[in-house]
User: Fold CTLH domain-containing protein from Ambrosia artemisiifolia.
Amino acid sequence: MKYFEDEVQNGNWDDVEKYLSGFTKVDDNRYSMKIFFEIRKQKYLEALDKHDRSKAVEILVKDLKVFASFNEELFKEITQLLTLENFRENEQLSKYGDTKSARAIMLVELKKLIEANPLFRDKLQFPNLKNSRLRTLINQSINFVRTRDRILISKHYLLTIRVVNQMPFQPTPGPVPTPLAGWMSNPPQVAHPSVSGSAIGLGGPSIPAALKHPRTPTNPSLDFPTGDSDHMSKRTRPMGITEEVSLPINVLPAAFQGHNSHTQAFNAPDDLPKTVARTLNQVGTNVGDIGLWEVGSREKLVLRNFKVWDLSACSMPMQAALVKDPGVSVNRVIWSPDGSLFGVAYSKHIVQIYSYHGGDDVRQHLEIDAHVGGVNDLAFSHPNKQLCVITCGDDKTIKVWDAATGARQYTFEGHDAPVYSVCPHYKENIQFIFSTALDGKIKAWLYDNMGSRVDYEAPGRWCTTMAYSADGTRLFSCGTSKDGESHIVEWNESEGAVKRTYLGFRKRSLGVVQFDTTKNRFLAAGDDFAIKYWDMDNTQLLMSVDADGGLPASPRIRFNKDGALLAVSSSDNGIKILANSDGLRLLRTFENLSYDAASRTPEAPKPAINNTIPVAASAAPTSAGLTERVASVGSISGTANNGDTRNLTDVKPRITEDANDKSKIWKLTEISESSQCRSLKLPENMRVTKISRLIYTNSGNAILALASNAIHLLWKWQRNERNSSGKATAGISPQLWQPSSGILMTNDVADMNPEESVSCFALSKNDSYVMSASGGKISLFNMMTFKTMTTFMSPPPAATFLAFHPQDNNIIAIGMDDSTIQIYNVRVDEVKSKLKGHSKRITGLAFSHVLNVLVSSGADSQICVWSSDGWEKQKAKYLQLPSGRTAAAQSDTRVQFHQDQIHFLVVHETQLAIYETSKLECVRQWVPRESSAPISHATFSCDSQLVYACFLDATVCVFTASRLRLRCRINPSVYLSPSVLSNLNVHPMVIAAHPQEPNQFALGLSDGVVHVFEPLESEGKWGVPPPAENASTSNVAATSPARGSGSEQGQR
Assistant:
């Protein structure tokens, strides 16, 4: 310890870490993580204390970024220290002394952590050596010196032979394996061999890339452990700070939340589906049939027997295989991201793609002779802005096909065994595919025909599938070995290593175990005639459910998107639907809708599929190899989940109806009294006259407003006993927050009257900064201190809309009042591109990170689509105004992307509309009646299931987003006092949706007041969706009630 203490006291941080690396790595356990964090944090603080900002940024990016995945909030707080003149302004660091005393305090804590770390046990004292043993060591060292050259020559020869044997097509030394995240941050600039025994090394990421990805090891001698590594037992230990280690006064608390102790007691969560709610019998046969089911009514909508659509177009090997053995089974069924297509992968050669048009209308779309032998998996993805089908098969290849034409685009070769599964995904703006093969190899491919980027061994080394959590941040795999040993593991993408292994499988599984993820929190797998659940952050089994019995040894499972329902294959060739309480209400709702439709009109059409949960069923399992996989459960209206749709319908359980009144006829929900919902008027600022812009912070615990007089207002909700989450709510009043300095965030207004200018702002993803303008220069504010970091772009022209690039916060799209769009790089203070296409000022901008496009809208009522790669204009279209309507000369048109990143909402004073981006076609439209007040603003709910719209008569309407059907109307009398109601000039200017609570929104009014709205807790939702049979029209005329009127009138 003496050497270690001296190095710490002297601040030789590189030597300190090098010394520690001989005993432990940063993620071996929670103690090791805390040790490395304290050392790197101290190094960071010392650089800040010397005002060496460039050095501090380098430490932040290279050394501290690795901890962001374990505690993002802490990393944000550390990052914000860069904005302070003296980091001691941070309350928790206010008692930080000089460097020497800080090192001494830290050393005390490091000693405690080292002594508590089991990896240092019996290693803290130098061992006693006998004289004879010491002489032996000396003799061995002398012998080593004499033979060193011969040994090195031998090693070089053996290394060369091994590399040649591993890489027959490229006889050059093989680089070390590349971490999963590392190969994504720097796409290669040179060609790669098509087959390699190890991954291609791409070098360390640049500083911008490192900001986006966790730091990866740079020492080429480090081995990345596999599932069989000795490090496995270490990596499954929980991470976090225990109470037994106290924090010194100069330490920011580092609680790596979510990594719980194994001893933590878990109760089975109520939100996991455990109750058998439906049983679908005789789902499949042994001849490759597929079926489509409406789960609410248990009705089979479609049954398709297997047949080759065009035998003459099939290859001779396929024709010969069918003649030899006509038996075919289904290996995979999956929906496209928008639910318009579904694909079926068969055990012999082909993939069939069907188009779905609602109800029982299923049509043949594409038939692809994809692989020689079986097609083992199938997925949809959006590389290069177009929908593609990805397949893999017995011929050891992965292929990518155009989903519209069936043309083959890529063939990936490199596996040495049949490819079992594919998992497409994207990180930042990089699209890629993981694949697994029956020899246990995991490979990753970019869409460039340049070979695999990684090559790892999957635990189990046989049948393995991979999946990301719903938010795309955590990677898991599940596999079963030939001996029946099953594994679910989480991967550390930054290191290409297994992060944790989940326990609780049967010692010898009786089939290939399949799994699924839900709620960014739970894992589930079918094993031992039951469904087993795990919390993602705890390796111990959470609970096991047998679904009332009747399950096969390894049942197949699939969650719907919100985790309220779980489909499970049964041993009698059926499917059981398990539900939690929300799922049960959801199913009752759809059952009632079907009942109502049948009872009112005997010949009434079936409920639209958007209000149902269809199930696509494959053939029954067979006893041979890969074809034992059975039904996958898909969705029609569900949105894309990171480019891969493997879930049920994305229908929130809040869309429910009274299950007890089956004769109930749908009726628009009118809210006319304050007692019918929860609303909260936020504390006022007397200096503000009108709210021009409004947004929730991304964390959901604050609301930021920009007033017409260029002043920003920030309301923060505090965490307390009444509000344990600290999130925004209508039940508790927040604080109108200001820093201790008392300064206000006020925009530059130049020589203009801010009341006459256009206000705009954009918030960074980590809530640290806001970029804002009110007719003058654009200002960048620190959200913690309210200080102005910089100003730029003096008018004219003035900025009218701001949008951060989704992959790079340094790139901003700035809409101008001269009709141009400027693509500005903050880091280098340079305009990269100027986009011209509009004729009036820009009023809306929205990025799609899936399609890599920017959509713009202007006061000219024109919508343009621009490539975010080269910034060229792809399409443009003028908004079609309703017949007989004329828009104001400078009427705003706003755009906002749907959660699927493929469709977007258009808001204009005359209409609401949903557009499909690639064709720029209007697929839904809602138009108020001529006598109605104009629309002032509208927005999607955070889950894109609802649209909230406000009007100039102070009415607020809630629509079902999928069909733009009005479901609830909130009248002005709910939130405006009688004295305000009499003032016809008070109305909503802007509406904002909570980022995590789909049923919460906020209104910014023309009198400077902000209101927050939520439905009653007993309701849990805004009204009831209109019945499906009334949804055939997309353009619905409507009227609005007079201001303050509670009378029931026709729909808007």
The radius of gyration is 31 Å. Residues 131-166 form the longest helix (36 residues). Confidence is low (pLDDT under 50) at residues 145-267, 599-663, 1029-1051.
